[in-house]
Amino acid sequence: MRKHYSIITIILVSLILLCSCSASPEQPEAQTTPPSGETLSPLPSDADTDNEENSLPTPSPTTMPSVDNSIREAIFMDFITDIYEELSNAFFGAISGIGFIDLDMDGGIEMIIFDAGASASMGVQFFDIIDGRVECVSASMQSVRETFGGEHMSDISVNANYFEDFRLMKDKSTGEMFYLVSSGNGGIDFSYRELIRFNSKDDVLTLTSLMYKEENYDEATGDTIDASYKIGKKSAALSEYTAAYEGVYSAAEDTGLEAKGAFIWDNQSYTNDRDGIVAMAKAAIQLSRANFPE
Hints:
Layout: H1 7-16, H2 69-82, H3 84-90, E1 95-101, E2 110-115, E3 122-130, E4 133-138, H4 142-148, E5 158-160, E6 166-171, E7 177-186, E8 190-201, E9 204-217, E10 224-231, E11 234-236, H5 238-251, E12 252-254, E13 261-263, H6 274-287
Antiparallel strand pairs: 1-2, 1-13, 2-3, 3-4, 3-5, 6-7, 6-12, 7-8, 8-9, 9-10, 10-11
């Protein structure tokens, strides 16, 4: 079972980092299994984000190439060490977690950095190595997008609280392995939840939104005022959304792999300065070995 940290813990950490974070009611727990096992629709594969009809190709079994991750680790560590000041400024000094996971299942790790968050979840930034250089390909913080993003920047961002939120799935028909994350955030007046799949295009990490829902609440009573749903880019009814959600988890099974990373509250040596962030990144590299399936 994964270890849960309360919103109060996140707020306390954010205060320590001199961040201004506002508390809000806790986001509904993300489901890692569907409400029923009925097969309702096929599992979406690598969706084309420009395809409004969301027509998806049939997935094929994953063959992981051989990649020397020691080289990638060195590049990421040089990035953190050499431009720490620029990195810290883009995060407003609030880097709360670092991890290394092969999210696109190409054999090479990507770097994940959590910010301190400001509501029910923390923001997540994703860095890949492109042409030998580190580039941000998705970020919840606009300052990170502007500072480290390039032509590969995704318009999809992720909010989460744990490295374990990144679930390694296996297609029951093809054996294909892929990562999903249930991204979400909210406050007293709204919440959203988005199921996102990771893939690779031209050897670069990509994010695809499989489905999205948003609910608005009456601040006084907490009652739901209205809700909207999407499958890919298309608006959907609740029944269609539910069928698509159940279809994903009917077509694939969670492998149970617990992705690992280091958070600033894990060790007193992870101070909010260059030495502390470097120490946290080194620890995350050691933990990254557990992020690969056997």
